[in-house]
Structures are given as structure tokens and as C-alpha cells.
Design goal:
The chain is α/β, with parallel strands linked by helices. Helices cover 42% and strands 22% of the residues. It has one domain. The strands form three sheets. Strands 1-4-5-9-11 form a five-stranded mixed β-sheet. Strands 3-2-7-8 form a four-stranded antiparallel β-sheet, covered by helices on one side. The chain has a two-stranded parallel ribbon with strand order 6-10. Helix 2 packs across helix 6 and helix 2 packs antiparallel against helix 7. It is globular. It starts with a helix and ends in a 6-residue tail after the last helix. The model has no long low-confidence stretch (mean pLDDT 91).
């Protein structure tokens, strides 16, 4: 457990934690993409995948967050991120079991995300190529990205859902810091500067 991650998003002030959780939600997807661009990362991100279940003539189409390509064996997986750090009194901060999925299984995208983990052959998956055209890809399953993940939670979730992997934003950030990744550092510094600009502006009267 990284105490800095916990202290950042969980305190005695729920209003603060809710605000920071929402701010983090704005930048967390790009943090994953930066991680995927690192040489040390086990995955490359190919962009957002669109899923269509075969036999439904294009109906029930869903778009997910990532397409992860393994740098080890070239297998491709669709990826979805869920990062609800403060929501419902931190109930979803740390992934411990599939019970934390239940409020998402009313959404088509998450239903298809879980289904493709077990039956990828049931879906046609496309991504956008460098010429902005859609191309079909063969996928081997699904990967979940969560805020924090316990070791036991990861094991239980992967066994029950057949997910190929479960990634934690906490570990991704730790990796980027350990690698002293300049893209990540520049990205955070820029967002810090932009945030400082808006809050400073809100404290200044017009003309001052």
C-alpha cells in the first residue's frame, strides 16, 4: 500500500476527497496512456476500441477506454478503467472482490467488457488507425484498470471473471515515478500550472 496515495484521496474531509477524486478522474486516463508509452511498460495502448456483438447487425455498440497490446507476446486486450476513489464512503477505493462491479453491470459497455473476457470470439472489435479509419483487430480478452488493487482482490477477480489482468493506478503512478518518466512529470506539472491559474484567477477582481 502506498500511504501517499491513500492520504491523497482518503481523509476525514469527504468534501475534499470528493473534489480531489473528481479532479483525478480528469487526468487518470492520460496517466495510463503515458505509462503505456514507456519502454518498461508491459503494454502498448492502441486507442479506444469499439465492440459490436456478432449477429446483431451493428446494434448494441460500445466503446471502451483502452486497447492494450502485450509487448511480450503481442496479444491484444480491450481495457476499461473504473476509478471511484471517494464514492459511497470509499467503498470502491480498493478492489477486493467482484461485488464492487455490481453497480456497473447495468451498463452495456461494462457488460460487454466482462463478456469479452470469457468469449472474445463473440465480438467484432475495431480501433482507429493512423489514417482515421476503423480497422478490425483480433482480441484475446479484457483488462481492468482500478484505483487501488489488493493482491487477494486481484487474484479473486481474475479467477472469477477470467480477466487477463487487473492494473492499479496506484502502481502505474509508482512505476512512472520510479522510472523518473519525463512525460509524466511534465504532464503533472502542466496540469498543476493550469489548476493554479484558474484558482488564482477566481481570487482576482476584474481589472486587478
Amino acid at each position: 500500500m502506498n500511504p501517499n496515495f491513500v492520504r491523497t484521496f482518503k481523509s476525514d474531509n469527504h468534501e475534499r476527497d470528493s473534489f480531489l477524486s473528481r479532479m483525478f478522474g480528469i487526468i487518470s486516463e492520460e496517466i495510463v496512456r503515458i505509462w503505456c508509452r514507456c519502454v518498461q511498460s508491459p503494454y502498448e495502448d492502441l486507442g479506444r476500441p469499439t465492440l459490436v456483438q456478432k449477429g446483431y447487425d451493428g446494434k448494441f455498440r460500445a466503446t471502451l477506454d483502452f486497447t492494450f497490446k502485450s509487448k511480450q507476446d503481442g496479444k491484444i486486450f480491450v481495457g476499461e478503467m473504473k476509478s471511484e476513489l471517494e464514492y459511497e464512503n470509499y467503498k470502491y477505493l480498493t478492489l477486493t472482490s467482484t461485488d464492487q462491479f455490481k453497480h456497473h453491470i447495468i451498463k452495456l459497455a461494462f457488460i460487454q467488457f466482462l463478456e469479452i473476457a470469457k468469449n472474445p470470439e463473440k465480438f467484432t472489435v475495431t480501433i482507429q488507425d493512423t489514417k482515421n479509419k476503423r480497422k478490425s483487430i483480433a482480441v484475446s480478452g479484457s483488462i481492468l484498470v482500478w484505483g487501488k488493487v489488493s493482491d487477494e482482490g486481484k487474484k479473486n477477480v481474475m479467477e472469477e471473471t477470467k480477466l487477463a489482468d487487473v492494473l492499479s493506478l496506484e502502481q502505474i503512478i509508482n512505476d512512472l515515478l520510479a522510472w523518473n518518466n519525463s512525460d509524466y512529470i511534465d504532464f503533472i506539472k502542466q496540469r498543476f500550472e493550469w489548476s493554479e491559474q484558474i484558482f488564482s484567477s477566481l481570487l482576482r477582481r476584474e481589472g486587478h
